[in-house]
From TrEMBL:
Main location per the UniProt record: membrane
Membrane-protein topology: Multi-pass membrane protein
Lineage: Bacteria, Pseudomonadati, Pseudomonadota, Betaproteobacteria, Burkholderiales
Keyword line: Membrane, Transmembrane, Transmembrane helix
Database matches in InterPro entries: O-antigen_ligase-rel_domated (IPR007016), WaaL-like (IPR051533)
Name assigned to this protein: O-antigen ligase-related domain-containing protein
Residue ranges constituting the O-antigen ligase-related domain according to the UniProt record: 153-310
Subcellular location(s) per record: Membrane
Superkingdom as given in the UniProt entry: Bacteria
Keyword Membrane among UniProt keywords: yes
Length: 398
């Protein structure tokens, strides 16, 4: 990722002019780091806190690089297909062969939560390409193979996500299905209905046959009931869901104490330690980088301005990608749909996690946003660039 960012910096340095699309994506990438810096200017400076949010600026540099050299739609599709089946292989090895309850990636290179969530995302990158025919596959047989690979990719991603034991991503599945089916303008009404039935059927089968899933859902329901009955009882915070509910309850109280600035990003570690020492929250809380809900974390740590910045992040991102769905270009449409899948998926994930909760998750988020956004930039440049008489349209390098 660092190499790509450096190459993007070189591309940025030689850029002749900034277009509106560039300012739009820059605002999207910088609004959260700016909110972090604003809060620390008021409540106290701690540079380490910026480490993960500033990855978004690296994402802008990668966007500049892809926007310069271009990216074929089928390159992203086959990369997503490879990613989905790689995730499936890891999940089967760790979750089935080794019998682990959670899948953390080979050698614990990932956390189970981002592993499951982004396995889901790359799987939906595959099915988003259903109906979009790559170059050279115009004949019926190759088209059917492409459609088969699209659905195989989403099944692989779904399976990897479910085997990871991550519950937060399950809520996003219906929304991602709807995006893929109803924002794919290359699918006929019949194909959309068939795609909806197939994907929802696969999801239903997984939900109805997985004992592990039933067990985790039942556990969550019991823990929620226990917390509602006694929110201040330390026993209600003993289990994973209870810990989350306890953190949200604590975070909302902290926001009410300081609605404009929160407790301060730089004060979080000290406040967290005090809550554990006093018995207000269980010892497990000491290892959590956030409150496992991006909105509540922003309210508690940075107050109302930080929470508004998070909401603006999603709105600006939605407007960026949604604006390119109707560009009349299959490539641009696919990249825009992928960007929307990432935005909607991570918005849902962030309701039980954080945008920057882990280093692997942060890097995956940045890459999954920057690559399709950069490809959109390239498509727009080619669409709006003056074409010289007798010259061929420039093709992406990758």
């Amino acid at each position: 990722m660092g190499v790509l960012a450096l190459a993007g910096l070189a591309a940025l340095a030689t850029e002749r002019r900034f277009r509106f699309i560039d300012w739009h994506f820059l605002a999207f990438c910088m609004i959260l780091p700016a909110a972090y810096m604003w809060n620390m200017m008021i409540t106290g400076w701690e540079t380490d806190i910026l480490d993960r949010p500033i990855h978004l600026f690296a994402g802008f540099l990668i966007y500049c690089l892809i926007g310069r050299i271009g990216l074929h739609r089928n390159t992203l599709f086959y990369a997503a297909l490879l990613g989905a089946f790689t995730a499936l292989g890891i999940a089967v090895y760790e979750g089935v062969y080794l019998g682990n309850a959670r899948v953390f990636g080979l050698g614990n290179r990932w956390n189970a939560v981002p592993f499951g969530n982004f396995s889901l995302i790359v799987g939906f990158f595959c099915v988003a390409a259903a109906g979009l025919v790559p170059r050279g596959l115009e004949a019926p047989a190759p088209r059917r193979l492409h459609l088969l690979l699209s659905f195989a990719g989403v099944v692989a991603g779904l399976t990897a996500s479910l085997l990871s034991g991550t519950r937060g991503g399950w809520v996003a599945i219906p929304l991602l299905v709807l995006l893929c089916v109803f924002l794919n303008d290359q699918l006929s009404r019949r194909s959309r209905g068939l795609a909806l039935i197939v994907i929802l059927g696969v999801v239903t089968v997984f939900f109805s046959t997985s004992d592990r899933m039933h067990s985790r859902v039942s556990e969550a329901q019991a823990q929620i009931t226990q917390f509602i009955a006694a929110p201040d009882d330390p026993k209600s915070h003993a289990a994973p869901v209870g810990v989350r509910l306890g953190m949200w309850y604590w975070g909302i109280k902290k926001f009410m104490e300081h609605p404009l600035t929160g407790m301060g990003l730089s004060a979080y570690e000290e406040e967290r330690k005090a809550a554990v020492d006093s018995g207000e929250l269980p010892p497990d809380f000491i290892g959590y980088a956030n409150l496992h809900n991006e909105i509540i974390t922003s309210l508690a740590l940075g107050g109302l301005p930080s929470a508004l910045a998070v909401i603006a992040f999603w709105i600006i991102g939605w407007r960026f990608f949604h604006a390119h769905l109707k560009a009349g270009n299959q490539e641009e449409h696919y990249f825009a749909l992928c960007g929307l899948l990432v935005l909607v998926g991570t918005a849902v994930f962030a309701m039980t996690e954080g945008l920057f909760g882990t280093s692997p998750g942060t890097k995956a988020l940045v890459l999954c946003l920057a690559v399709p956004a950069g490809a959109i930039r390239y498509c727009e440049r080619m669409r709006t660039a003056p074409v010289c008489s007798g010259s061929a349209e420039q093709q992406p390098a990758t």
